Amino acid sequence: MQKIRKAVVAVAGSGTRLLPATKSMPKEMLPIVDKPAIQWVVEELVAGGIEDIILVTKWDKKSLEDHFDHSWALEHELAKAGKKEKLAEIQKISEMANFIYVRQKGPYGNGTPVLSAASLVQDEPFLYVWGDDLVKSKVSFAKQMIDDYNQSGHLMIGVQEVPRDQVDRYGIVSLKNKKTMQLDGIVEKPSIKEAPSCLADFGRMILNQEIINVLKKTKLGKGKELWIVDAIRDYIKAGGEFYAKKIEDGQWLTTGDPLNLLKANLEYAKDRKELRAFLKKYLKTLK
């Protein structure tokens, strides 16, 4: 079985739900406490053993690319000031992995980044990740997925239980076998009455060349977009096996809108010793 060493990260979205903050800044660069969201994602991947990180971008993502490059002027300034800890922290960012950048081409939709990076992951299993979806867990969720894959060889998608009245906001999985978590299909943003479960999929998947081959033939779906879940559904219909993977000791935190961005900041801030006491005290003063 081939080792999973590559991740494709979709970062070409415009972040319109976060305007005007995202007018000149990629949504993936918005801070979660004192790190941009995308850095939390990359750290999760690296902790899972990923070596090559392929970021599928577009024209206005230069600051994201710069973040994972060396900043010689800043490093010189920190060295000159004797700020050794900060210098090491900044230098570590660009050394975490091999960063590869690909411009997105093709129809709108979350399946397009996979096709844009297809030649770089040819005939290999890989992780596919949304750049604004965080998973806060004791053990890196990327590691949890890869460890599962190494044992079972299963292609899989991350899922989390959501309230029934929120199922129409997400892709909802239908289980063929609740014990093994084998999928029967995925329904994109179903009505509350039609939802097959309350398990929402999110931006963590293990895919391979077979899924890419199906995706190349997948027709545009809801909203005339190319959906990765449609390719997964077609793969299952053709006899392929695909599984759902729940997070162990953690939670999925999306950051694509103001409320969830704020929630993610609070969740990460409460783990910081220097912030936790103040945060609890301050929140009690809010009316």
* The CATH H-level homologous superfamily: Spore Coat Polysaccharide Biosynthesis Protein SpsA, Chain A
Count of beta strands: 13
- CATH first level: which class? Alpha Beta
Roughly what fraction of the amino acids lie in strands?
Answer: 15-25%
Under the CATH scheme, the architecture is Alpha-Beta Complex
User: Portion of residues in helices?
Assistant: 25-40%
How do the strands line up in the largest sheet?
A: 5-4-1-6-11-8-12
Structural class estimated from helices and strands: alpha/beta
Low-confidence stretches: none
User: Tell me about the biggest sheet?
Assistant: 7 strands, mixed
| Overall mean confidence score, pLDDT | 94
Overall geometry comes to globular
Q: What does this protein look like?
A:
Helices cover 34% and strands 24% of the residues. The protein has 287 residues and is an alpha/beta fold. It has a single domain (6-285), classed as Spore Coat Polysaccharide Biosynthesis Protein SpsA, Chain A (Alpha-Beta Complex). It has a seven-stranded mixed sheet with strand order 5-4-1-6-11-8-12, with helices on both faces. Strands 2-3 form a two-stranded antiparallel ribbon. α7 (209-217) packs across α8 (228-237). The longest helix has 13 residues, at 273-285.
